[in-house]
Structure of BsuBI/PstI restriction endonuclease C-terminus:
Amino acid sequence: MGDRAGTQAADRVSEALNILRALGVPQKQQNERSALTLLALLGLTPEKGWTQAADPCLGINQMMKHFEQHFGKRYAPNTRETVRRSTIHQFVQMGLVLANPDRPDRPVNSPKNCYQVAPALLELVRAYGTASWDESLKNFVTSAEALRRLQPRERVMPLIPVTLPDGRQLDLTAGGQNPLVKQIVEEFCPRFTPGGVLVYVGDAGRKQRHLETDYLTKLGVVLDEHGKMPDVIVHLPEKHWLVLIEAVTSHGPINVKRQHELRELFKKVPAGLVFVTAFPTRRAMARYLSEIAWETEVWVAEAPGHIIHFNGERFPGPYE
């Protein structure tokens, strides 16, 4: 990037920071990263003035490519989550940016997530540097109630309703393995763990979404703080079995390593351990077939009435 282009880029970033300060964004969002994010979402380059601002719909990766291509700022790939959680998330909460304007119900962890500046913000930034800026800013801030304070509440996400065996309803965030978790609870449990107590259901968006804390304590289960719990845990009181179920959509099955981890995690539990890997389809299972540990069970959601025993008894059970 030449001297002139470099100066233009620095000027544009500085102007974007001035706009963010004028909007009253939190101090943690008054930085170069957030300024570059705003510029990308407005389709601005060092050569373009604010009157040329547009409203492209961009994903995080596209924004980061914009940073590098037009402003010479290259961030490491693992910075993607920082851009999303420490800039975009706050911009959405403040009403500056719209999440998935093309499909608002898109799952929270979909790779197709995209973002677009709100129409009111687009109109405002086009006035930056003009005689109407001060008046436009005053009107914008007055009408944007969300800008008066950043709400500390969690962003509202699309939810998947799940009916528990006892009739209660649980809402899981959409996306990840949660659609499969819903099938495990509603299809697998009634068939293969009848009379069982559903004591734990994980959530791809909010960890430890459903917990029977007192029940788990009585069983001797110590909750893991580092996210190593299985996705679903069912206790069968009559047989005194603890059924540990992993839902596989992007991560692997219960292989030898994972089986060992689970044995360690539940080594103080007197109940017999039953290991189950759940897949959405047989095609998905085929990808991991060579990894599945012996002495475990496999359930495929597209054929919910069947279960596959890896070198086991006719029916699932713990192995000594």
Observations:
- The domain at 3-148 is CATH 1.10.10.1820 (Arc Repressor Mutant, subunit A).
